[in-house]
Known about the structure:
Blueprint: E1 14-15, E2 46-50, H1 83-95, E3 100-104, H2 114-122, E4 133-138, H3 143-153, E5 157-161, H4 167-174, H5 180-193, E6 199-204, H6 213-220, E7 226-231, H7 249-257, E8 262-264, E9 274-279, E10 292-296, E11 309-312, E12 317-319, E13 327-329, H8 330-334, H9 341-353, H10 359-362, H11 382-385
Parallel strand pairs: 1-13, 2-3, 2-11, 3-4, 4-5, 5-6, 6-7, 7-10
Antiparallel strand pairs: 8-9, 9-10, 11-12, 12-13
Amino acid sequence: MSTRVIPVVDQRRAQSLPPLWPSSAAVPAAPADGVLRDQIGRPLRDLRISVTDRCNFRCSYCMPKEVFHKDYAYLPHSALLSFEEITRLARQFVAQGVRKIRLTGGEPLLRKNLEQLVAQLAALRTPEGDALDLTLTTNGSLLARKAQALKDAGMQRVTVSLDGLDDSVFRRMNDVDFAVRDVLTGIEAAQAAGLGPVKVNMVVQRGTNEHEILPMARHFRGTGVVLRFIEYMDVGSTNGWRMDHVLPSAEVIARLRAELPLVPLDAASLGETAQRWGYANAAGQHDPALGEVGVISSVTQAFCHDCNRARISTEGQMYLCLFASQGYDLRSLLRSEASTDASLANAIAAIWQGRADRYSELRASLPSDNAPAADQPRRVEMSYIGG
């Protein structure tokens, strides 16, 4: 019997910040329309903030138990950004164009008093005076008890990760024997609290849970929940990813359409990661009462060309791609005696304007054995910067 070898590497490292302008200087020049863009012309619109590197699940595609065992050394509390530091950073990102903030983890609901951070972020306004689109991604395990407090604090929507309705499959995938019913109860609580539309993300792995595609669609059809199927991705270096474990989104849609009529829908916004499909009525038109599904195809149909997302890790590193190997250390700048809002704004602008990441589009040219090349830096784990 072959033994699975998982490389253990500490990804919590960051490269130096690029040269910064003096704190009194203006933010680097943007185009005439005032929109900050990267090297490929992509604007900065979406910020994902990881509030903890801990999770109470051990999903094999994210935090396999072989690596994240009971003796794993998580970040000490002093290394984590405080809620005030997160809010200060977020304010500068909003000034640079961010209009949507998503809180992630690990499992973000494990962060004590998270509602306090939600309230601080909900109070932020764009230069035009508009509120932000404030969302959160969770495994749903604590959602039933937290949903109303999140809504009261200003959270608008939540996304729940759920990889199947078959309890034995789900318990095997989360690897901590957590029941499906408890996640479904959390989803119901989120809907009752008004955290909607609730989205449910299902990571599909060939040979593991693809038989759950149709049961999931049947269950959520007509409930107001938006179900999205995500191709199994090669994030990090510990999940044993192989291309033959990927079920292409085109096949997912084909399986759905064999039983449930679907019609394509327009993207909800620029940079939308999901391709949307609406359930059709007898006339072949989208029936909003039946809802929609989506597929996220970062392996087979890369969407790097309009990716407008930046990520902040639990300890304040700025990452420009989900598949990055290193980040930029904003925490040191935040905690520097010389730190000013202008210096933070300049750092964010300089980093984004130098961005040219497009890993998913380049994946086809990488080594064909599905394993990281020996001379390639190991990518950061998804549990560290969120999905």
